[in-house]
């Protein structure tokens, strides 16, 4: 989001965050433990987030079909929460999803992005893990061949990871846990059809501010 405000090519007009109230959004946008202080103005005004005097509509919907993106004149939606796999455009022209899909084609930059048709209204970019794993897996398979493979991924704890302490998860010791997850290997098999069913692995979310290994 910060990068977008430093670009003249992108205008952010709306954000949907069902988990965080507006006052908290203002604070965490100003002060980030990883990226430091935001060098600009951030405030809440008329139930909108105002960054550098640019008003942004805030939605807090858990059901994406309830979001009226057209009310905010949104042309393109970026779904990056990892929660919604199927998105209703809500009046927008295009949706980009950064989560592996169960039945829709996925496009990875440097591998299959050239197959992306501009007529597609929903574009799925898979996940960060898939984008990291698929390119080297393809190179190894093209040059040597992969009969089967196992991967281990380590990355920072993310919001969708559920704690055993739920529903009091805010009081749990998440930072002292290693939370397992998996799914990227299936996505790689869909991006590289020759490797479908040949890869398996484990994914560990650990106490790190930002890392993928």
UniProtKB/TrEMBL annotation:
<dbReference type="GO" id="GO:0005634">
    <property type="term" value="C:nucleus"/>
</dbReference>
<dbReference type="GO" id="GO:0005829">
    <property type="term" value="C:cytosol"/>
</dbReference>
<keyword id="KW-0808">Transferase</keyword>
<feature type="domain" description="Glyceraldehyde 3-phosphate dehydrogenase NAD(P) binding">
    <location>
        <begin position="1"/>
        <end position="128"/>
    </location>
</feature>
<dbReference type="GO" id="GO:0006417">
    <property type="term" value="P:regulation of translation"/>
</dbReference>
<comment type="similarity">
    <text>Belongs to the glyceraldehyde-3-phosphate dehydrogenase family.</text>
</comment>
<keyword id="KW-0810">Translation regulation</keyword>
<dbReference type="InterPro" id="IPR020831">
    <property type="entry name" value="GlycerAld/Erythrose_P_DH"/>
</dbReference>
<dbReference type="GO" id="GO:0004365">
    <property type="term" value="F:glyceraldehyde-3-phosphate dehydrogenase (NAD+) (phosphorylating) activity"/>
</dbReference>
<dbReference type="GO" id="GO:0006915">
    <property type="term" value="P:apoptotic process"/>
</dbReference>
<keyword id="KW-0560">Oxidoreductase</keyword>
<dbReference type="GO" id="GO:0051287">
    <property type="term" value="F:NAD binding"/>
</dbReference>
<keyword id="KW-0702">S-nitrosylation</keyword>
<comment type="subunit">
    <text>Homotetramer. Interacts with TPPP; the interaction is direct. Interacts (when S-nitrosylated) with SIAH1; leading to nuclear translocation. Interacts with RILPL1/GOSPEL, leading to prevent the interaction between GAPDH and SIAH1 and prevent nuclear translocation. Interacts with CHP1; the interaction increases the binding of CHP1 with microtubules. Associates with microtubules. Interacts with EIF1AD, USP25, PRKCI and WARS1. Interacts with phosphorylated RPL13A; inhibited by oxidatively-modified low-densitity lipoprotein (LDL(ox)). Component of the GAIT complex.</text>
</comment>
<dbReference type="InterPro" id="IPR036291">
    <property type="entry name" value="NAD(P)-bd_dom_sf"/>
</dbReference>
<keyword id="KW-0963">Cytoplasm</keyword>
<keyword id="KW-0053">Apoptosis</keyword>
<dbReference type="GO" id="GO:0005856">
    <property type="term" value="C:cytoskeleton"/>
</dbReference>
<dbReference type="InterPro" id="IPR020828">
    <property type="entry name" value="GlycerAld_3-P_DH_NAD(P)-bd"/>
</dbReference>
<dbReference type="Pfam" id="PF02800">
    <property type="entry name" value="Gp_dh_C"/>
</dbReference>
<dbReference type="InterPro" id="IPR020829">
    <property type="entry name" value="GlycerAld_3-P_DH_cat"/>
</dbReference>
<keyword id="KW-0324">Glycolysis</keyword>
<keyword id="KW-0520">NAD</keyword>
<dbReference type="GO" id="GO:0016740">
    <property type="term" value="F:transferase activity"/>
</dbReference>
<protein>
    <recommendedName>
        <fullName>Glyceraldehyde-3-phosphate dehydrogenase</fullName>
        <ecNumber>1.2.1.12</ecNumber>
    </recommendedName>
</protein>
<comment type="pathway">
    <text>Carbohydrate degradation; glycolysis; pyruvate from D-glyceraldehyde 3-phosphate: step 1/5.</text>
</comment>
<keyword id="KW-0539">Nucleus</keyword>
<dbReference type="GO" id="GO:0006096">
    <property type="term" value="P:glycolytic process"/>
</dbReference>
<keyword id="KW-0206">Cytoskeleton</keyword>
<dbReference type="Pfam" id="PF00044">
    <property type="entry name" value="Gp_dh_N"/>
</dbReference>
<dbReference type="InterPro" id="IPR020830">
    <property type="entry name" value="GlycerAld_3-P_DH_AS"/>
</dbReference>
């Amino acid at each position: 989001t910060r990068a977008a405000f430093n670009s003249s090519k992108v205008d952010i007009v709306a954000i949907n965050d069902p988990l965080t109230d507006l006052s908290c959004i203002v604070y965490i946008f100003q002060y980030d433990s990883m990226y430091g202080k935001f060098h600009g103005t951030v405030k809440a005004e008329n139930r909108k987030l105002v960054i550098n005097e640019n008003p942004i509509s805030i939605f807090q919907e858990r059901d994406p079909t309830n979001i009226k993106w057209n009310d905010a004149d949104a042309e393109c939606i970026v779904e990056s929460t990892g929660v919604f796999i199927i998105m209703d455009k809500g009046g927008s022209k295009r949706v980009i999803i950064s989560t592996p899909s169960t039945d829709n084609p996925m496009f990875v930059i440097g591998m299959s992005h050239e197959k992306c048709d501009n007529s597609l209204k929903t574009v799925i970019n898979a996940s960060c893990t898939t984008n990291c794993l698929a390119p080297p897996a393809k190179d190894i398979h093209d040059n040597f061949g992969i009969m089967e493979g196992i991967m281990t991924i380590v990355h920072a704890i993310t919001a969708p990871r559920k704690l055993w302490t739920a529903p009091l998860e805010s009081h749990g010791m998440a930072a002292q846990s290693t939370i397992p997850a998996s799914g990227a290997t299936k996505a790689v098999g869909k991006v590289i059809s020759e490797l479908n069913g040949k890869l398996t692995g484990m994914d560990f979310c650990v106490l790190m501010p930002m890392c993928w290994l």
